[in-house]
Amino acid sequence: MSALLEVQDLQTAYGSSQVLFGISLTVAAGGVATLLGRNGMGKTTTVRSILGLTPPRSGEVRFLGERIDGLSPDRIARMGLALVPEGRQIFPNLSVEENLRAFAANRRASSQPWTLDRVYELFPALAGRRRHMGNQLSGGEQQMLAIGRALMTNPQLLILDEASEGLAPLIREQIWACLAQLRAQGQSILVIDKYVQRLIQLADAHTIIERGRVVWSGNSAGLAADPALWHRYLGV
Q1: What is the rounded CA–CA span in Å between residue 43 and residue 48?
Q2: Which of 86, 171, 184, 223 could bridge 167 with an S-S bond, Cβ 3.0-4.6 Å?
Q3: What is the sign of the dihedral through the CA atoms of 154, 158, 161 and 162?
Q4: Burial class (CB within 10 angstroms; exposed 0-12, middle 13-18, buried 19+) of 109
Q5: Global confidence as pTM
Q6: Do 28 and 206 touch, CB atoms closer than 8 A?
Q7: What is the rounded distance in angstroms from the CA atom of residue 166 to the CA atom of residue 159?
Q8: What pLDDT score does 21 carry?
Q9: In this structure, what are the phi and psi dihedrals at residue 137, rounded to the nearest 5 degrees?
């Protein structure tokens, strides 16, 4: 598979405090990749650097072969990157349907764009709650809405920061099933989460970071074969 997203030697700081020290990773077109590590190791900063929210000090970010580091976040989003942020960040005073409609876009003129009906088919729980306000939803429903909202932009790359954090086990399984379904449909995904066993089943490539540096990268077979790696860097 060809590379959709390529991150090379990313270095990012907040003021005088450097957080990333040469992060590199790749997401293949039509593939699923993960970014793993304990809390506070730089995963969210990496995502923010990719999306232009916290511009890197050095390094390169290429999307479809074009450099996007240095571009504004809105321009990067319009190129086809969509984020499901940590904490979901849905609009609490808009209904489910209004949250979805607010992000509807088909800039690449997809022949099968994401629509309200497609999102409701993917998440039937949202269909029955379509007129409820965002702040009336459970945590699991909010996460479904956050994913649906990102899909309504018809992204080429879907990025999920803490995909199943704080969710009940049953809802978490529904999210994994949703991501597997998206993968089967050819959606490219970069996912941050801590459930390594589920990610091994879902993803092709994995990158582990520790204190802003890549300490391991490889495929699912390599990660599955080395549980000691999980305990050392992921605390599982």
Answers
A1: 9
A2: 171
A3: positive
A4: exposed
A5: 0.93
A6: no
A7: 18
A8: 95
A9: -90, 155
| Integer angstrom CA distances of residue 180 from 30, 54, 96, 152, 184 | 12, 30, 23, 18, 6
Domain borders along the chain are 1-80+189-236
Where in the chain does DSSP place strands (E)?
A: 3-14, 17-28, 32-36, 58-63, 66-67, 81-84, 157-161, 188-192, 205-210, 213-219
Q: Which two tokens stand for residue 5?
A: 């997203």
**Residue 168, by phi and psi: left (phi above 0), alpha (psi -120 to 50) or beta?**
beta
H helix and E strand count, the chain? 10, 10
Nearest to 59 by CA among 41, 46, 74: 46
Q: What is the pLDDT of residue 110?
A: 77
Q: 132: Cβ–Cβ under 8 A, 6 or more apart, which residues?
A: 95, 96
Contact 82, 150 (CB under 8 A): yes
Residue entry with tokens 């996460």 = 143
Closest listed residue to residue 182, CA positions, set 30, 11, 43, 41: 30
CATH of 1-80+189-236, picked from 3.30.870.10, 3.40.1280.10, 3.40.50.300, 1.10.472.80, is 3.40.50.300
Closest CA to 233 of 57, 34, 6: 34
8 Å CB contact between 92 and 146: no
Residue closest to 13 by CA, chosen among 58, 63, 47:
58
